């Protein structure tokens, strides 16, 4: 056993060095994939009888044409970045987590409940505790999926997917009951106390959540590439048999990845509630979690690469309304661009491997 430990450490160093070398050139491949997707989108716009250059210019102007639009784009990017980084971590570990949608919804409910319970507390207390409440709620919901998967042997895709619908119904019932605002006419909570609102940058109208998201992605990248836990996740993602043979506990890795991803998704829900709506609203999370899968794949399952991927999706969606309003191209084209980009990125990643 004494000889096996140094050999394992040397193997770990060699594997890490090899994986870093594989990342070389990844940015150029993703850039080519993005260019190809835009060329295909331009062809579709031309076939529909519109000028592609005018359409793309309208997207750019709608996304970054003013300080307010830049802020709106960054706010749109934040939930994609946080939940996409968590999904990327799971994918890197070979765990297919499709449950970010429900984890965001439950996280928003957790943050709203904490913020309402902390009415009267100063901002330095209310905001961190509300965000922690959102992260804990999302982590617990992801932990439920991990428990069912590990305890009953149900595939994680099925568990995480079905728990999304249960989470949405749970939030609906909370808004119809203890968290709901009486007489509102539709399902929403009362307005959060002002002390729990996330601060906004003057002029840009962007909340502090984008900074939290970038720091979280950087920390996740450090964990993935510079810690034993991250190495174990990468080995598990490459071969679960090899990870088990090396002595890594697959159950612990699954718990770790799922709880981390759930906490990030729950944090995204909390930031969306406290920074954007300032109240819990039914359906506020619709589409965020499923789009997180797209962002994770666009980022080639690299936490830091998820940052530009989430920004790309956020800018596209923020500028899509301007494109439809000015040029007449439907916003559904943005979904086509995202899908084409994902396909080309996956093809580039497969070719690299």
Automatic annotation (TrEMBL):
Gene Ontology molecular function terms on file: transmembrane transporter activity
GO cellular component: plasma membrane
Transmembrane domains' residue ranges: 26-48, 80-97, 104-121, 127-150, 157-176, 196-224, 254-276, 288-315, 327-351
Keywords, comma-separated and alphabetical: Cell membrane, Membrane, Transmembrane, Transmembrane helix
Keyword Transmembrane in record: yes
Major place of residence: membrane
Superkingdom of this protein's organism: Bacteria
Subcellular location: Cell membrane
Membrane topology of this protein: Multi-pass membrane protein
Pfam families: BPD_transp_2
Record-linked PANTHER family: ABC TRANSPORTER, PERMEASE PROTEIN (PTHR47089), GUANOSINE ABC TRANSPORTER PERMEASE PROTEIN NUPP (PTHR47089:SF1)
Protein name: ABC transporter permease
Source organism of this protein record: Lichenifustis flavocetrariae
